[in-house]
Design a protein that fits this description.
This protein has helices at 4-13, 31-46, 70-81, 101-109, 125-130, 148-162, 182-193, 222-226, 250-257, 261-264, 298-318; strands at residues 59-64, 85-90, 115-120, 136-142, 171-175, 197-201, 217-219, 231-234, 272-274. With 330 residues, the chain is of the alpha/beta class. The chain folds into two domains: 2-143 and 303-317, Aspartate/ornithine carbamoyltransferase (Rossmann fold, 3-Layer(aba) Sandwich), CATH 3.40.50; 149-288, 3-Layer(aba) Sandwich (Rossmann fold), CATH 3.40.50.1370. β5, α7 (182-193) and β6 (197-201) form a beta-alpha-beta unit. The structure holds phosphoric acid mono(formamide)ester.
Length: 330
């Protein structure tokens, strides 16, 4: 017999499922999927201190081959909060002895885990692996490619702030290292699905070739891009991916593109500041605009990440109750 809080979640879910077994790209999501995820995530957020037994008996492996604080901690906390057993493997796994990702992940799948959360140093790994394992694969970031759960938590943060079901009529200005950012590529897909106008401001060397074909407005002047925006979203310069070689210096970048008080003041008076973290202070965002600034929603993003990830783990773990994922063995 589920307790009252679990019953509330079941009521909000109202028998709804999502249309996917694995999540590796925002392109997979329908608007109905997004609405389902957000309705349930809001309820989880309401009961943030409560431990649920919804996924009792299920287990999860977090496979992280790149550094992470937020994504790894929140996927692990989300699973534990749903009463799942979790284990983490990463750089110290047998991949270091030459085992390939597929053999590693098929080995973990043989433990009959429900969910495998993967952060890889190569693009497309989560999608390819999802065709070869029974567990649901969740992409926790694949190189420069996508970070879908980050975009989902960002979308929830924006929609709740605007008290809206979509982003029609809203201007989202994204500033920074577009080229090397998987956060960007998931975020722009989600913002476009939700109807936003997306502006981008970045040094030309941080822009992919033919960027204009992605349906964004491109600015080389950050002040023009921020003017009258509803959201200013700063990205980190990805030093670990060699980004420093694309700009004269971090100091120059900070001067030209870093989000300062004066720059944020060019946006609408009720605009919000967002950043996926980790923030490199005084490079992407000036210290005066810390996480606790009234316009900053950075910690709200972190909190929403836990709620969104709990939702996905609950929905994906229980899709097996009625249907088997079809997959191709090697
Ligand atoms: N936003 C994000 O992915 O942060 P972590 O690298 O700390 O997980």
């Amino acid at each position: 017999m589920s307790n009252i809080r679990e019953q509330e979640l079941i009521t909000v879910r109202n028998g709804r499922d999502v249309s996917f077994f694995d999540l590796y790209s925002i392109d997979q999501l329908t608007l109905t999927d997004i609405e389902t995820i957000y309705d349930i995530a809001r309820k989880f957020r309401e009961h943030k201190t409560f431990k649920f037994s919804l996924n009792k008996g299920c287990s999860q492996v977090n496979v992280f081959f790149e550094n992470s604080t937020r994504t790894q901690a929140s996927f692990d906390l989300a699973a534990k909060n749903l009463s799942m057993d979790t284990v983490s493997v990463g750089s110290s796994s047998s991949v270091g002895k030459g085992e390939n990702y597929l053999d590693t992940v098929q080995t973990l799948d043989a433990y009959n885990v429900k969910t495998l959360v993967i952060r890889s140093k190569e693009a497309g790994v989560a999608e390819v692996l999802s065709r070869h394992v029974k567990a649901s694969i969740l992409n926790a970031g694949d190189w420069w490619h996508e970070h879908p759960t980050q975009a989902l938590l960002d979308g929830l943060t924006m929609l709740d702030y605007f008290k809206s079901k979509n982003l029609k009529g809203k201007t989202i200005t994204i500033v920074g290292d577009i080229l090397h950012s998987r956060v960007f590529w998931s975020l722009v897909r989600l913002c476009k699905k939700l109807g936003a106008t997306v502006r981008v401001a970045s040094p030309e060397t941080f822009l992919p070739v033919h960027a204009e074909k992605f349906g964004m407005e491109i600015y080389d002047n950050v002040e023009d891009a921020i003017k009258d925006a509803d959201v200013v979203y700063a990205l980190r310069v990805q030093e670990e991916r060699g980004s420093n070689g694309f700009i004269p210096s971090l100091r120059e970048y900070s001067k030209m593109f870093g989000i300062s008080r004066a720059r944020l003041d060019l946006a609408k008076p009720d605009a919000i500041l967002m950043h996926p973290g980790p923030v490199i202070r005084d490079i992407d965002v000036h210290s005066a605009l810390s996480a606790v600034d009234s316009q900053s929603h950075i910690l709200q993003q972190v909190e929403n990440g836990l709620a969104v990830r709990k939702t996905l783990l609950w929905l994906l773990s229980h899709r097996y109750d009625g249907q088997e994922k079809t997959f191709t063995r090697k």
